[in-house]
Specification:
It is built from ten helices and 14 strands. By secondary structure, it is of the alpha/beta class. Residues 303-309 and 311-343 have low confidence and may be disordered.
C-alpha cells in the first residue's frame, strides 16, 4: 500500500478502511478481510461505538506468528466532543487504546472543533431536548493532545472538521503542528482552498465520505447522488472501472488520502484497486467542475456553540443543492460549519 510522509516523520497509507456505521458482527470481519488484501490503515473513532470489536480484529491479526507486525499497520482514532477539557483528553485516549488493544495510536484527531457538555452521555441534551454545549477553547484541547505524544500514547496528532481559520489558531499556539486534517471531500465538495491551505502548512488532507455517504441515515429528498453523477459514470465507463474507483482515484491524484467505508468484501477489494490507472488532466478538470459546495455530513451545531470564539458570525455553510441549482442568499444558512472553506 502506498504511503505519504507526515510532518511528524511517520508514514501513513494513502488508502484506509473507514469504520463509521460498521455495525456489531460486521467490522471485525471487514478489517480482517481488508488486511488480507493489503490494507494497512484503519480509521476509527470512539463515537462509532465499535472500537472493542475492532480491537478483537487487531488482536487476531497482530503478533508473533499472526502475519502482521504492529509497526506495519496504521490506526487512527478520534477524541469525541465530550472530552475536550484538558483533564479528560488522556483518559479518553487510554479508553480507545484499551478497547483497540493497542499500546499506542498512530494518529489521534480532535473529531470536531466544538464541545458537548460533561455528564457521561455522548450526546448530552438540556431539559428541553436541545444539544448541550460546553465552551472549551480547542487550543486548550490541542495542548493536551500534544501531551499524548510526549507520553508515547500517540505518534501523530491532527484535526477533523476544522476550517482554515481554526487551523491557523491551532498552529499559532502549538508546539506540535497538526499532521492531518480529515474532512468530507468528493467532487461535489472539492475543498480546493482548504486543500491548498493544508498543503501550505504541510498538513495531509484525508477525505471521509468520498463516495457521498449513500448509506447514511438522514438524507434530503432533493440532494444529488454522487454515485449516479453522469460525468463520473461516463469516466468510469471509459476506464472500465467502477464509479467508486474513479472517485477515489480523483482524490489520490489531488494528493488527498481517503478512507472509504465498506463491510462488503467485494467492495473492499474494489476500493483498493485504484493504483493501476490514471485519470487524464481533462478528466480531472471535468470532475473538479462538479464542485457545488454540497455537504452530506451535517454537524450537530446550533447557535449556542458560537460562544468562546469557536465560530464567527459569517462562517456560512452552503446547503446541499439539487443538481443545476444556483447558489443564492436563500440557499445559505448561518450554520457555523467547522469545515467551511475560506473562513
Amino acid at each position: 500500500m502506498k504511503t505519504v510522509l507526515l510532518n511528524s516523520n511517520y508514514e501513513m497509507p494513502v488508502l484506509g478502511l473507514g469504520t463509521w456505521q460498521s455495525g456489531a458482527g460486521q467490522v471485525k470481519t471487514a478489517i480482517l478481510h481488508a488486511f488480507s488484501i493489503g490494507y494497512r490503515h484503519i480509521d476509527c473513532a470512539s463515537i462509532y461505538g465499535n472500537e472493542a470489536e475492532i480491537g478483537e480484529a487487531l488482536q487476531e491479526a497482530l503478533g508473533q506468528g499472526k502475519g502482521l507486525k504492529r509497526e506495519e499497520i496504521f490506526v487512527t482514532s478520534k477524541l469525541w466532543n465530550c472530552n475536550h477539557h484538558s483533564e479528560d483528553v488522556e483518559d479518553a485516549c487510554r479508553k480507545s487504546l484499551t478497547q483497540l488493544k493497542l499500546d499506542y495510536l498512530d494518529l489521534y484527531l480532535i473529531h470536531w472543533p466544538y464541545s458537548f457538555g460533561h455528564g457521561g452521555e455522548d450526546f448530552p441534551r438540556t431539559e428541553t431536548g436541545k444539544m448541550q454545549y460546553d465552551v472549551v477553547d480547542y487550543r486548550e484541547t490541542w495542548r493536551a493532545m500534544e501531551n499524548l505524544v510526549s507520553a508515547g500514547l500517540v505518534r501523530s496528532i491532527g484535526l477533523s472538521n476544522f476550517n482554515a481559520r481554526q487551523i491557523d489558531e491551532i498552529i499559532a499556539s502549538s508546539t506540535i503542528r497538526p499532521a492531518v486534517l480529515q474532512v468530507e471531500c468528493h467532487p461535489y465538495l472539492g475543498q480546493t482552498r482548504l486543500l491548498a491551505h493544508c498543503q501550505e502548512h504541510h498538513i495531509v488532507m484525508t477525505a471521509y465520505s468520498p463516495l457521498g455517504s449513500p448509506n447514511r441515515g438522514w438524507k434530503m429528498d432533493n440532494e444529488p447522488v454522487l454515485l449516479l453523477e453522469p460525468k463520473v459514470v461516463s469516466i468510469a465507463h471509459r476506464h472500465s472501472r467502477s464509479v467508486a474507483q474513479v472517485l477515489l482515484r480523483w482524490l489520490l491524484q489531488r494528493d488527498i488520502t481517503t478512507i472509504p467505508k465498506s463491510i462488503t468484501p467485494s467492495r473492499i477489494e474494489e476500493n483498493a484497486k485504484v493504483f493501476d490507472f490514471e485519470l487524464s488532466k481533462d478528466e480531472m478538470a471535468e470532475l473538479n467542475s462538479l464542485d457545488r459546495g454540497c455537504r452530506y455530513i451535517e454537524p450537530l451545531i446550533e447557535g449556542k456553540c458560537w460562544g468562546g470564539g469557536t465560530y464567527r458570525s459569517g462562517e456560512w455553510q452552503l446547503l446541499c443543492l439539487p443538481q443545476g441549482t444556483a447558489a443564492t442568499t436563500k440557499t445559505l444558512k448561518p450554520n457555523p460549519n467547522p469545515a467551511t472553506e475560506g473562513s
